[in-house]
């Protein structure tokens, strides 16, 4: 008889042996349109058992990888700052054991907590950002800690030229102007990603990869808080993820699934498959 502990499929290696450590941040207190992303990480764990552990896209299997799922954090919904501090502390603990933290959101503001921890260990960090939204506002309704501002806060940490943005198709005029001046900006598509990942792989600079699932078109992924028409396809996202196989990724996240906004369950199934492919890509030398 064993306790009923629900992990993402096949992510049950002992912590000491794991190379990647999953943790969930069920937080959506700064969501500006439709809430529900706080339920994303739990839904992905529960629904992951509808997947095979084997990926025919990569000819790899999660059962060959060493991944530990540490579960969801219990976060304070009344304080964004406290939630971010708790996320940073969990990411820091994982990094202190020389493991890769992989965060499951939650809305996109949770990324900042993990990036703060990763940046402390890797001050020359680059961030690659897949999203429908620029997330570069200085504040949203007076709040500088918001999912609409998360990449602007990351820019405060890493500075110009070290944030690389793809698929962006929504934002204020000022955000797009800021991006063109301060980030490596690739709106609408993944054009330029092949060249970027080749450069990053050659230099082996540390990279944090953040995937807001609303980069996908709403026809593929309607279960998200702020859907934006004109997104990429599922296969385009998988191809983009696989380009990171030889990049020195030291932290990552997948966020913005709001499962109850898609009663069909297709969005959750899609998110699970994206996470499986990301885990397999980052499990270097395994599978």
- The CATH class label is Alpha Beta
Mean pLDDT across all amino acids: 94
CATH fourth-tier homologous superfamily: Ureohydrolase domain
Classify the helix fraction into a percent range.
Answer: 25-40%
Largest sheet: 8 strands, parallel
The radius of gyration computed from the alpha-carbon positions, rounded to a whole number of angstroms, is 17 Å
- Contiguous runs where pLDDT drops below 50 for at least 5 residues: none
State the separation between the terminal residues, measured CA to CA.
29 Å
Q: What structural class should be given to the helix and strand makeup?
A: alpha/beta
Q: Tally the helices.
A: 8
The SSE order reads: EHEEEHEHEHEHEHEHEH
Shape: globular
Strand ordering within the main sheet: 4-1-5-10-9-6-7-8
Plain-language structure description:
The protein has 287 residues and is α/β, with parallel strands linked by helices. It has one domain: 3-Layer(aba) Sandwich (Arginase, Chain A), CATH 3.40.800.10. 32% of the residues lie in helices and 16% in strands. The protein has 8 helices and 10 strands. It has helices at 40-47, 80-96, 110-121, 150-158, 173-182, 193-203, 234-242, 266-282; strands at 20-25, 54-55, 60-61, 67-72, 100-105, 126-130, 163-166, 184-186, 207-212, 249-255. Strands 4-1-5-10-9-6-7-8 form an 8-stranded parallel beta sheet, sandwiched between helices. It has a two-stranded antiparallel sheet with strand order 2-3. It is globular. The model has no long low-confidence stretch (mean pLDDT 94).
């Amino acid at each position: 008889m064993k306790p009923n502990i629900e992990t993402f499929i096949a992510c049950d290696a002992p912590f000491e042996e794991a190379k990647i450590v999953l943790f969930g941040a069920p937080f959506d207190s700064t969501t500006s349109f439709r809430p529900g992303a706080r339920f994303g990480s739990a839904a992905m764990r529960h629904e992951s058992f509808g997947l095979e552990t084997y990926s025919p896209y990569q000819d790899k299997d999660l059962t060959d990888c060493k991944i530990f799922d540490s579960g969801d954090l219990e976060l304070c919904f009344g304080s964004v700052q406290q939630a971010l501090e708790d996320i940073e502390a969990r990411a820091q603990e994982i990094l202190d054991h020389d493991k890769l933290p992989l965060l499951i959101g939650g809305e996109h503001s949770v990324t900042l907590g993990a990036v703060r921890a990763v940046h402390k260990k890797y001050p020359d960090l680059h961030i690659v950002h897949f999203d429908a939204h620029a997330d570069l506002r200085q504040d949203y309704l007076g709040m500088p800690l918001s999912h609409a501002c998360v990449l602007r806060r990351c820019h405060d940490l890493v500075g110009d030229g070290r944030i690389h943005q793809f698929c962006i198709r929504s934002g204020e005029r000022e955000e797009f102007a800021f991006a063109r001046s301060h980030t490596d900006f690739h709106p609408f598509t993944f054009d330029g990603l092949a060249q970027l990942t080749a450069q990053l792989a050659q230099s082996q600079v540390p990279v944090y990869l953040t995937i807001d699932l609303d980069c996908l078109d709403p026809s593929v992924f309607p279960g998200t808080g702020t859907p934006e028409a004109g997104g990429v396809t599922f296969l385009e996202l998988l191809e983009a993820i696989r380009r990171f196989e030889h990049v020195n990724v030291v932290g990552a996240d997948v966020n913005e699934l709001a499962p109850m906004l898609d009663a069909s369950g297709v969005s959750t199934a899609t998110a699970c498959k994206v996470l499986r492919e990301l885990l397999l890509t980052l499990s270097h030398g395994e599978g």
